[in-house]
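Why predict the complex rather than its parts? Because the way molecules touch one another can change local conformation, and only a joint prediction can capture that. The input here totals 283 residues.
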Amino acid sequence: MWIYEKKLQYPVNIKRPSARLASLIVSQLGGPDGEMGAATRYLNQRYGMPNATAIGTLTDIGSEELGHCEMIGAILYQLTRNLTPEQITDGGFDKYFVDHTTGIYPTAAAGAPFTAAAIACKGDPVADLNEDLAAEQKARVTYDNILRLSDDPDVTDVIRFLRQREIVHYQRFGEVLRKTTEDLDSQNYYAFNPEYRM
Amino acid sequence: MSERELMKKIQELAFAKAEIQLFLCTHEDNAQALEDYYKLREDLAGATADYERKYGPLTADAVVGSRYSFSDMPWPWQNEKGGGR
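Output of the joint prediction:
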């Protein structure tokens, strides 16, 4: 169960609209390494986890990612207020706009709508935790790329915060993977299929 | 404290608490972290109660009085209405 708190995890207060930045940052909502996929991936993987540390960590990080979906939504909302048709076209936001106006629709920057293919859940703790480590690194790279393209300090400040969270999550998932691997039979050198039993 | 200052304080405390909570997920027996967690939890509860008394509920459970005020503007993303925090 979740309870909504009427605040953002980190403040988002963007004064200058930018169709261009909105058309890029939407990828961190609905793109292959976006926050929606992250939240859903972690919360769904919990059921297959063999130890309390893994379940607890996935619950906490998955919940935090839901808060990050809201922060990306806030960024997109603020970047797309009061845009003129010229700004929409010049910023490359016109293809999104024609289908979704300025509604917050989860899609990758290049236009592919959100797909469950982004939510890896293999049902095997070693496979899934390695997936999560990669997912955090991929999200971190996407934030790095957004930082390379951002020209607005208000946007950059929030993206830096979100980027830092990926690094912390990577650290915690690494600890969970080490613990999960240590729990295996010590003769199981290759961490092979530890969970599934017929 | 203004609404914005108090919200900033709540966000700082809540962030520190979330970070320690996540650390504790993988370090359940770390006494120092657990002590910090209890302290932050207490400070956050105090700041939240203070905020809600002055500026309105942050969760539906904190609604008091003769009308349901949880849905009132601004919502956190509405920086044009005094949100954006």
